[in-house]
Amino acid sequence: MLAALGTMWSCAPETPVNPAENTDEPDPDGPRIVLASPGPMIPPVPAILLTIEGAEDEPDEISVLWTFVVSGDPPQIGVSAASEHRARGLLELHTEFVLNLPTATMVEAFDIADMNSSRTADKFELTGFTRGRALAVDAPTIEESPIHCECRIIASLDVPPDRKLFIAEIVATTVSEGAVDSEGRLNVSRVPFFGMTAGSGEHYTMGERIGNIGMTVGRTDIKY
Ligand SMILES: Cc1cc2nc3c(=O)[nH]c(=O)nc-3n(C[C@H](O)[C@H](O)[C@H](O)COP(=O)(O)O)c2cc1C
What's the structural domain count of the chain? Predict the structure, then answer.
């Protein structure tokens, strides 16, 4: 079956990665501990900076939000906004925004954007980020980010007690040369993207490539 699929897609099988060879794995025979409080312990979720226009006479917003891919085709992504944060009302007001992917050199400015509110200051001035303009949506961008996903909201869901999920279609994606290969595939090993951990509140770069989607059936064509 696996060989048949490999032939069907005409792909050379990659060398499978054997998790047992990774000596840094936690001891599977160690005791499992129940934590005092449950949490979304998921390390690490890619760091993103959402940019969106401000309300009238207010500065544009740069927010750190949890994101998730909803679908690769059509390209759809979700973000979660808490009612206490400015991004929430602005997403409802404008319905268009940009997801800017920061790199490791931007981590301090990333934290400044997170730790400050645009209710009191312009986050572009605080962070030193260069304000750009999206091509297909009405929203600002962070020019230093090598990837911009330009998004338009298509659905939303209230999540008690205080969150709202916004599902958006990605209507345009722009990238810096070097962030993708000649076929337009994301080149993670060449750009120091980073993630943020739920469970320890830290930032980590993405580490090393350990495989690819479809490697167990000899596929290298899946991009999403
Ligand atoms: C790791 C991390 C994840 C966050 N996720 C969200 C989120 O999903 N939704 C949200 O509304 N705020 C989230 N925040 C917090 C805000 O985006 C951030 O503090 C915001 O910049 C505050 O600005 P404001 O008060 O002007 O909205 C997150 C912060 C961090 C560090």
Answer: 1
